[in-house]
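pasting for ref
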Amino acid sequence: MSSTIAAAFARDPAQETLALLDSAAALAEAPLPRIAEILRTALAPYVRCSALVIFTEDCTGRPQKKAGAEAVISRVTLDELDLIRSSLPDLAPRWSDERIAGASRPVLAARSATNALLVLTDPLAVADPPGASGALDPDTGAVLARLWHLAAVRIRDKVAEATPSYLRESRAVSAERSRLTAELTDAHSTTLETVLAALRSARQSDGAARRAAIDIAAAALVRLRASADRTASLLEEPVVTAFERLRADLRPLERFSGISLQFVEPPVDGRALPGEVAHAARAIVRALVLAMVEQDEVHRIRIQWGCDGTNLLVDIRDDGQGRLSLAEDGLRRIEQRVQALDGRLRLEVLEGWGADVFVSLPLDPPSSRAPKGPGAEWELGEREEEVLRLLAGGLRNRAIAAELGLSENTVKFHLRNLFRKLGVSSRAEAVARAAQAHAGQR
């Protein structure tokens, strides 16, 4: 046993082992909002610190998890954390002086295999003599690395599960974060642009000073815009990238189950997905595919994603016997995830021919969505209303797709939903129902 660990516990190895197992169990069960606090407590017998900060891009709503001194956790920025992470050559914990929370401080930093970052500010190995710092003995470093690995994996897996409670909290935080970021960006941009306009004025006589000030202000604008872009990249994921990650997740299932998975990719120019929607969509599709695989006589599953600018549209179809049911516990839990994001799930089964599951996930939080139009009585989405309007104008699927910048498959997806919501079975009936509703509003 190392001198640090012996001094930290001052007890026999069995007690130390039990304490480590208790810490590991606490981390394995930790809720995301408390994981930084629990990790800091678990590390306290080995390394004390003024604050502990976790930076993870898995959590789009709250990429920072923090515990400790308010002077640190209230001022640390994503740019500071990203610079520290980019300076780490490998996964080994490193002791150094870094700028964090607006000041230079000693920190102990480590990356995880999931590319998350752990930072301990003002670290002190428990067995170090007063005034000593800057190194960890191998055993203490190994304990820190393993506890940090557990925490990082817990964060990744908790996000991948995409439980309803996590999704609701993440969506609310993302919406508020986006609003505040936009306000700050606009305010600072306006200020700096005003400074630039004043300094460029012909009334200024000191050209050299004016040029220097312009350079400084222009550089500040670039930094501000880059920071805003970085925040947006943390909060969003391109739809094609999200779909490719889904394919990677499902490849082992295809390899070992013998079931053919057919993927219909979303359009490359589709709107980026909010992080919680991307995580939720992958979790929902994985769960639905597993539910389909568990049925007898399923040989092929088709997975299609579309994006209409307002919603992520998911269509999953199997060739089984058509025995899936929303009354099953597994599908009920999936439906709860969808509802947590204010989305909709619909299941169509045809006995002997298979099941077809349609999922629609809004890309905007409820508070920022536009009010419903004339189709509100049928609970039509914005895109569905547009498709109905063009349908009433006599356009065919290809022309509707061209008009709205969608694929024909996405138009067909909307038409199926329209027919269901309007209670009709043909294009002519849908147009007639829309005409009746319009006449009734006049």
